[in-house]
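In the current project phase, the collection of sequences with tokenised folds has grown. A sample record is quoted in full directly below:
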Amino acid sequence: MPRVTIKTGITGPDGREEQISEYICDHPGCPNIATHLLGVVVELRICASVCDEHSPGRKHGNI
């Protein structure tokens, strides 16, 4: 899953630059922030997650 990190340019209390990081939805072409974990393969250290729109429990057409 792609991870996007934005450097704020602001120095935090610990003296390091503050950063904001988010994971992006694994559905092809979706730019939304991932909010639901689908699964993990510990041996390979990978996981898959999707946004609310692509969550398996969501019924399409209903909001």
Remarks:
- Residues 34 and 51 are 4 Å apart (CA to CA).
